[in-house]
């Protein structure tokens, strides 16, 4: 294409953009049709149960467990948004900032809040639109630029200028981007089950199997219907994500208790609680690919090989974008929900990485 005259290059770029958006919306329509058929099947089999929802007015006790830390709030001056987080460990200790994935919230880091508070001020955040954090109503408020700036502003509002940054799933995506855009704020980066964003965008277009696993990215482009599908059969989809044989934590993992499941159901069954989280995905295709790629701080990537949503091949490819010490550990029996599935192993791996020399060169 470099040899093409400018009009030809513009035409080629326009054709690629057209094909890209045709793929996005075509696949979105296909996913919607499949979801619609499942809904009709559910109505035909059990019409009474399809639209049944339990009333959940009070949070389960585990969400107020004092051993996990203190519930706190911070209001960001520029955006005006109030963020909720749970903090453990003494103020003044080095900051460890934890970013959850979808469909999760601060509670997904309960094992890490207990583990690392001895040496860190551990902060598990509810991302924009999640849980008790404010949820702007327009999807434009969930662009990646906004989500990245949130983390920078929260860091500064907490009185820190740097942190150990840990992200899982969608929180891993945000963690990668914060590390790329604000490298001076991240001393060490730890990501759980999410590749470098450039790897993800390139891989998904070349591997139909990953395109199928990422179908929810496309389905979420639709208004209101994805939120509705989550509520069917009293949030059966949400429960099955963590418990089913296909996507949930396996028999050898630390399975979620009934109270843990109820905690997720309580948070996401509140009025409008699903729209903010799904809005995170409704801008993704207009924000990628990235202009800047390199990560310059020591990086640990942890991966559950039984991840039903992310192919493990992306983990190794991520290495080329990290221009510092890079450590990859793949756990063969672990699921996508790695820090909940194998908390003891994950915590040990994180401790080992944190105690390594930061001057060590990339392997």
Task: Kindly describe this structure.
There is one protein chain. The chain has 363 residues and is an alpha/beta fold. α5 (170-181) links the parallel β5 and β6. α3 (110-116) crosses α15 (343-355) and α4 (144-157) crosses α5. It is built from 15 helices and eight strands. It is globular. An eight-stranded mixed β-sheet has the order 1-2-4-3-5-6-7-8, with helices on both faces.
Brief synopsis:
With 363 residues, this protein is an alpha/beta fold.
What is the topology?
Layout: H1 6-45, H2 47-50, E1 70-75, E2 82-88, E3 95-99, H3 110-116, E4 121-125, H4 144-157, E5 163-168, H5 170-181, E6 186-192, H6 197-206, H7 208-213, H8 215-219, H9 225-243, H10 258-268, H11 275-279, H12 284-287, E7 299-304, H13 313-317, E8 326-331, H14 338-341, H15 343-355
Please give the radius of gyration in angstroms. 20 Å
Count every beta strand, where a strand is a DSSP E run of 2 or more residues: 8
Low-pLDDT stretches: none
Structural class category: alpha/beta
* Strands side by side in the biggest sheet: 1-2-4-3-5-6-7-8
End-to-end separation in angstroms reads 35 Å
Estimated share of beta-strand residues: 5-15%
Mean of residue pLDDT values: 93
Number of helices: 15
Order of helices and strands: HHEEEHEHEHEHHHHHHHEHEHH
Q: Roughly what percent helix? A: 40-55%
How would you sum up the major sheet? 8 strands, mixed
Principal-axes geometry comes out as globular
Keywords: Hydrolase, Membrane, Transmembrane, Transmembrane helix
Domain AB hydrolase-1: 94-339
GO molecular function: epoxide hydrolase activity
Family: Belongs to the AB hydrolase superfamily. Epoxide hydrolase family.
């Amino acid at each position: 294409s470099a040899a093409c005259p400018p009009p030809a290059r513009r035409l080629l770029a326009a054709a690629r953009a057209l094909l890209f958006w045709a793929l996005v919306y075509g696949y979105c329509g296909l996913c919607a049709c499949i979801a619609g058929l499942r809904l009709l099947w559910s109505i035909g089999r059990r019409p009474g149960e399809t639209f049944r929802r339990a009333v959940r007015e009070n949070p389960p006790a585990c969400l107020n467990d004092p051993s996990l830390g203190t519930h706190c709030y911070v209001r960001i001056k520029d955006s005006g948004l109030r963020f909720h987080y749970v903090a453990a460990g003494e103020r003044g200790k080095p900051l460890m900032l934890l970013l959850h994935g979808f469909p999760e919230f601060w509670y997904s880091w309960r094992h890490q809040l207990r583990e690392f508070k001895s040496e860190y001020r551990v902060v598990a955040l509810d991302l924009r639109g999640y849980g008790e954090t404010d949820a702007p109503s327009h999807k434009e408020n969930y662009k990646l630029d906004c989500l990245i700036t949130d983390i920078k502003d929260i860091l500064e509002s907490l009185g820190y200028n740097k942190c150990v940054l840990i992200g899982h799933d969608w929180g891993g995506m945000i963690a990668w981007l914060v590390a790329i855009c604000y490298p001076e704020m991240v001393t060490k980066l730890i990501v759980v089950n999410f590749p470098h964003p450039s790897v993800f965008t390139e891989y998904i277009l070349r591997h139909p199997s990953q395109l199928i696993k990422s179908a929810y990215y496309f389905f979420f482009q639709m208004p209101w219907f994805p939120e509705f599908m989550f509520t069917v059969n009293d949030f059966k989809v949400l429960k099955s994500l963590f418990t089913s044989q296909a996507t949930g934590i396996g028999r050898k993992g630390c399975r979620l208790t009934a109270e843990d499941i109820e905690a997720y159901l309580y948070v996401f069954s509140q009025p409008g609680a699903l729209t903010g989280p799904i809005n995170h995905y409704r801008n993704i295709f207009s924000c990628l690919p990235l202009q800047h790629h390199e990560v310059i701080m020591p990086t640990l990537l942890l991966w559950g090989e039984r991840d039903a949503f992310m192919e493990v091949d992306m983990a190794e490819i991520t290495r080329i974008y990290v221009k510092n010490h890079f450590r990859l550990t793949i756990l063969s029996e672990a699921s996508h929900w790695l820090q909940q599935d194998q908390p003891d192993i994950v915590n040990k791996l994180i401790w080992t990485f944190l105690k390594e020399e930061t001057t060590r060169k990339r392997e």
